[in-house]
Amino acid sequence: MLCLRDPFSTTLTALTAQALVAKVTPANNPVLLGLNLANGERCRLRDGGAWGAWGAPQNHPDYVGYYSCGPRDIVWARPNSSTGGIDRTTRNWTVLIGDVTGPLTTIGVTTAAFVTTAA
């Protein structure tokens, strides 16, 4: 099978399955694998791990991290966000970013990398 591991690359990685892989139907709503932000940061979708592993921002202890952006910034939102923390209510999407100690900042999303399963 072929996997895209880096949303900012065009390289696919060939993996060998240890057992047969079931056929899956492509998702109706593809996942955003990566985000480019207006401040120049690139954010990658959180891959695995417990939601609490990143902690929570001090000013929003009920938020969880959805994307990692550089060495410290994280895209934050309430748990079970249907959009992964991306505000899509207007034509110009935005996210709340920051680290666990500082205030959160609203930043625009300039481009987004989608991924889904091929039929």
Short description:
This protein is 0% helix and 37% strand. The chain is mostly beta strands.
Task: Describe this entry's structure for a reader.
The chain has 119 residues and is an all-beta fold. The protein has one domain (2-17, 31-115). Helix content is 0%, strand content 37%. It is built from no helices and 9 strands. The chain has strands at 2-3, 13-14, 31-37, 42-45, 64-69, 73-77, 86-87, 94-98, 105-115. The chain has a 6-stranded antiparallel beta barrel. Strands 1-2 form a two-stranded antiparallel ribbon. The protein is globular, with a radius of gyration of 16 Å. It starts with a strand and ends with a strand. The mean pLDDT is 87.
Biggest β-sheet strands, sense, barrel: 6 strands, antiparallel, barrel
Task: Please state the overall shape, judged from the principal axes of the Cα atoms.
Answer: globular
Tally of alpha and pi helices: 0
The level of helicity is under 10%
Quaternary state of the chains: single chain
N-C termini distance: 12 Å
Strand content: 35-45%
Q: Please give the order of strands in the largest beta sheet.
A: 3-4-5-6-8-9
Total number of strands? 9
* Domains, number: 1
Low-confidence stretches: none
SSE blueprint:
Elements: E1 2-3, E2 13-14, E3 31-37, E4 42-45, E5 64-69, E6 73-77, E7 86-87, E8 94-98, E9 105-115
Antiparallel strand pairs: 1-2, 3-4, 3-9, 4-5, 5-6, 6-8, 7-8, 8-9
Protein name: Secreted protein
Organism: Frankia umida
